[in-house]
Each structure stands twice: as structure tokens, then as C-alpha cells.
Amino acid sequence: VQLQASGGGLVQTGGSLRLSCAASGFTLDYYAIRWFRQAPGKEREGVSCFNGSDGSTYYAESVKGRFTISRDNAKNMVYLQMNSLKPEDTAVYYCAATTYPVDGYGNSWCPSTEYEYDYWGQGTQVTVSS
Questions:
Q1: For the CA atoms of 55, 76, 101, 118, what is the dihedral angle to 10 degrees?
Q2: Cα(85)–Cα(59) distance, integer angstroms
């Protein structure tokens, strides 16, 4: 099982980037894929998540309306489209995967903490200049 994150780079404030997370060794249908980011001197934070169970998506308040997460089943990839980038978006971005939990009613969700994710990509640097 492997995840490969790519697509980072240097962009000016207001610009856009699309991050890609390629999965191999497993099918995304059975997993929640979350993007995390970690800025220098700060804790890792969850940015966005795609729940493979029902296609539901989640966003941190700081990126709502600017970032969009999506999945390509045929390519077994998850994307994070980042628009209107700000300097505070500068960080190393990681994609992570875990099997999504299911309760007794059949409801599933994206786990929120990094400790709940089993598989991690290597990280890709995003730098937004002011």
C-alpha cells in the first residue's frame, strides 16, 4: 500500500495549485483520504477529506470555498484543487488514508486526527509568496 503526493510548488498570493495523491495497492472506494498540512513550527492540521464510502467531503474552515477535493476512480487518485492561495497556506501537504469507520446504523465518516490514518504519502511543499 502506497500513497504518492505531488503537485506542490511556488505560487503567488491568489494563485492556484492542484495536488495529486496517487494510491497503489488498494482501492480508494474503501478508504477515507485526508489531506493534512504542516507549516514550520506548527502542528499538523487536517485540511480536507474524501470519504470513499459515500463521496462526502470535508473541509477545514480556513480553506472552505477555496479548496476542492475530488477523486478519480479510474486513476485511483485524489486531488486537492487549491485556489485563491494565501501565504498562510504555505506548508508541506500530505495525503493519508485509512479505512473509514462505520457505526451500527451504517453511517461512515472521515476520521479527523492524524493518528487515525494508517498510510501516508511523502509530502509535497506548497509555498505561497506575498
A1: -140
A2: 15
